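Same chain as my last thread, 174 residues:
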Amino acid sequence: MQNRGSIIGGLILIFVGALFLLLQAFPELAAQLDPELQWPLIIIAVGLLFIVGAVLGAASLAVPGAIIGGIGGLLYYQNLSGNWSSWAYAWALIPGFVGLGLILMGLLDREKRSSIRDGVRLIFISLILFAIFGGFLGGFYGLHQFWPLLLILAGIWMLWRNRSGRSSNKEPLE
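reply #2:
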């Protein structure tokens, strides 16, 4: 596996070619796959190809693969539901996609094991942001009046974490 870039490029070309060949061989399939609704699947597929590249040896491709695939998933949901206004808070999931990529990269490459911990932190932060912005901007239908509680809970967690000595800043205060 000398040139991983050509492997990934080759996989992308094979996937796209097979898709078009399948659509030519079965025109009724093309009629069922409404391009106006299914176009985000292309973005998801590109993300999955990056993940395949990560599994084949270029572990750092897991991060862009998770980001591209995750955004493709968001676009697919929004395109099917018509809920494009959810971008007001759905963007907060993108750091979580980075976190998923970091976890996968850490699992695939022993030298990058520390990225697993960073990935978990990013997912946690992303979910908190998603809950706060979703609650504040009315994305959770009826729960928007409770978003200040999420801020209070996040503050309590930060204080508790600091008190228990698990803080990342171990230097004494002067």
